[in-house]
Amino acid sequence: MKLLGLFIFSIILFQGFSEALSAANSTGNSLTKEENKAGFQMKYGLKHLNCNYACAMRCSRSSRKNLCNRACNSCCFQCKCVPPGTYGNHHLCPCYASLRTHGNRPKCP
């Protein structure tokens, strides 16, 4: 009797593992690797950028910190990136570098 119970338990356990494995394989094949990675990051928030902190670092040496932080945060929320350092490095965040004011001047510090 105990042998029959152990046999049934092992079959149920094996079936659970096989269903989990097939579900993981079927969802992984429907998306490309980049789409799957982006979806995972959006779902679990792994690619979240703290704009306030990044802009505080970016504007730490500015003579007009409030103005710099306001512009930087606006750019960060749109682009989801802030170039490292306190000046330059715009090539590392192309969206940040491409934003312009109404006077066609760079918007982001």
From TrEMBL:
Signal peptide: 1-20
Keyword vocabulary terms for this entry: Signal
Top-level taxon of origin: Eukaryota
Pfam families: GASA
Family: Belongs to the GASA family.
Protein name: Gibberellin-regulated protein 3-like
Protein source organism: Spinacia oleracea (Spinach)
